[in-house]
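Risk register update: the risk of archive-format incompatibility is retired. Evidence:
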Amino acid sequence: MSGRPAQFRQADVKRALSAARAAGYARARVITHPDGRIEIVGENVPEASTAEQSPFEQWKAGNARQT
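Archived output:
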């Protein structure tokens, strides 16, 4: 560990992911690189029909906690 304070804090990550969701992306992820670069990747993932989902996936889709 470097011992220096983080330049991109947890609050910044939450804000960035929230902005990606507000921009219409179904899923987003934050990637930090060793050289200090930070990437935020938004992805639109097509929903699988419920006929293709297992019973567990159907349950999870209806009962997952939304943050």
